[in-house]
Structures are given as structure tokens and as C-alpha cells.
Specification:
This protein is α/β, with parallel strands linked by helices and 270 residues long. The protein contains nine helices and eleven strands.
């Protein structure tokens, strides 16, 4: 029944000239990083309509390669694998972008394609509404790390002096909260990616072992030729120590990838 409703919705947008796109993204848990695909498509003039991975015409932000069968025949723009052992050869998909060099290698692709996570375009979503910096430090735990003891310890110790950002919100809300911070530390990959997009110095912190271990982090940073180093948070750190952990990727490197990704979105033809 839901599929029929989605097709009716898509058809309505089609006949009204609203440029609908059948798109798949992970939505089992509300997570701002997974919803960025939807908001980016809207930003570039499309109307996203969610379909499952078998029926979608576009797969973009997130670690979604393992969700697809080798027979997938839609467009892939910026997604990545979750695991270093993933080896899939897509026979019919139109691959115009992937998250990083590791995913590209795992898929056996030798042609030159755009590499970079579409989350790097997150700044486009709030560019007309940038925030005043209210916090020296923002901490973004992955949703599975929300109740981590180190996070709770820092929250108790520093209170309103730091911003603990909940990723289980809409992208615009999270991005505005991030933009109010001078520095970011995050166990969420899209917390780091969006910090790079917004030009906020940041650092990957590890609070637990996520699915796929470090693969998706290494994949993302590979486009900058960076081998990322995480910090293990204990909760005993001072704000000054946490700030000193952070650093920025060279602006020109980020800008180049943004331009490449934006070109792909502007020229999407499905």
C-alpha cells in the first residue's frame, strides 16, 4: 500500500512539473546525516519521494552500498560502503560519485569519477542563515553513543558552556546548532563532514565500536589524502584540551570537492 501511495505522490509531482526523484535513504532511525540527501535534493530544485532501494532511481548520502543488489540500475551519487570486505560489481548502475577512494576500490572502479560525501554541501542548506558563535565547543555523539558515560560526565561538568548536539533531529536544526559552535568533536561521521562543510575545526572521537569499525571514516578522509586519527574521550578532559584536539582541512581542498559534487546535483538527469 505504501508503495502505491509513493507512486501516486511521484506521479502528482511529475504532472505538476515539480521534478520528482525516487530516492532511497536510511530512515529507520531519524538521523540528520541520512536525511541530508532529501534536503539537498530540495535545495537543488527537486522533489524527493522516498522509495525502497529496489525501486529508487537515486542513492546518495550514507553507507548504503550494502543495501543494493548487483542488479541495481539507478544512479549512485556519493554513497559509500560500510565494510572493507564489501565487494560488489554493479552491472547496470550509473555511478557518478562515491564517498571515497576505499569504496571506489572495493567496487572495482577504475574510471575517474567524483569522490566526496554529499554532506560536504550541507553549508548550502543554511548559507543565508548563519549562526552567531555561542559555544566554544560542540560535541556530536553518534545516536548509539548518546548515553555514553564520557559524554554525560562532560555535560555534568561543563553544563551550558558546551553544546551537546542530538543527531536525531532534522538536518537544518542540527546544522544551525553546529554553526553556533567554534569547534566540534564528533563520533558521528556526518558530524565531522558537516563541520568540514561549515569550516569548523573538528576531531573524530571514538566512544564505541560502530558497524564496519573505521572503514567509513577512512573512506571519507581518503579524498583529502588524510589518514584520520581518532581520540578516545574519557570525560576528564578540560574544554581547552578538547579544543586543542581539533583541526581544519585545507579550505581549497574542501571547496574543490564541493564544486565537483554540486555540479553533479545540478546536472542530475534521472
Amino acid at each position: 500500500m505504501q508503495t502505491i501511495l509513493n507512486y501516486l505522490k511521484w506521479f502528482f509531482y511529475y504532472v505538476t512539473g515539480s521534478k520528482p526523484i525516487k530516492v532511497y535513504y536510511w530512515k529507520q532511525v531519524v538521523n540528520f546525516g541520512d536525511l541530508i540527501t532529501r534536503d539537498l535534493l530540495r535545495n537543488y530544485g527537486f522533489t524527493p519521494v522516498w522509495f525502497n532501494e529496489k525501486r529508487a532511481d537515486l542513492i546518495s548520502t550514507g553507507s548504503l552500498i550494502e543495501h543494493l543488489s548487483p542488479a541495481y540500475d539507478g544512479t549512485i551519487l556519493g554513497t559509500g560502503a560500510i565494510d572493507s570486505n564489501t565487494k560488489i560489481q554493479f552491472l547496470n548502475a550509473k555511478i557518478i560519485g562515491l564517498r571515497g577512494k576505499y569504496t571506489k576500490r572495493n567496487l572495482g572502479i577504475v574510471d575517474t569519477i567524483v569522490l566526496g560525501d554529499p554532506g560536504l554541501l550541507a553549508d548550502r542548506l543554511i548559507q543565508k542563515d548563519r549562526s552567531f558563535k555561542k559555544f566554544e565547543l560542540g560535541i556530536i555523539p553518534h545516536y548509539s553513543d548518546a548515553n555514553n558515560a564520557a559524554i554525560q560526565k562532560l555535560k555534568l561538568k561543563y553544563g551550558s558552556a558546551i553544546s551537546i548536539i542530538n543527531v536525531r533531529q532534522q538536518p537544518i536544526t542540527v546544522l544551525k546548532e553546529m554553526d553556533a559552535c567554534k569547534h566540534i568533536i564528533s563520533s558521528s561521521l556526518h558530524g565531522l563532514i558537516c563541520a568540514d562543510s561549515l569550516g569548523i575545526p573538528n576531531r573524530w572521537i571514538k566512544l564505541s565500536e560502530l558497524l564496519g569499525n573505521d572503514f567509513k571514516f577512512n573512506d571519507y578522509y581518503s579524498v583529502f589524502d588524510i589518514t584520520p586519527e581518532f581520540k578516545v574521550l574519557t570525560g576528564s578532559e578540560s574544554i581547552e584540551e578538547l579544543i586543542l584536539m581539533t583541526e581544519s582541512i585545507a579550505e581549497e581542498k574542501v571547496t574543490k570537492i564541493k564544486i565537483d559534487l554540486e555540479t553533479q546535483f545540478l546536472n542530475l538527469k534521472l
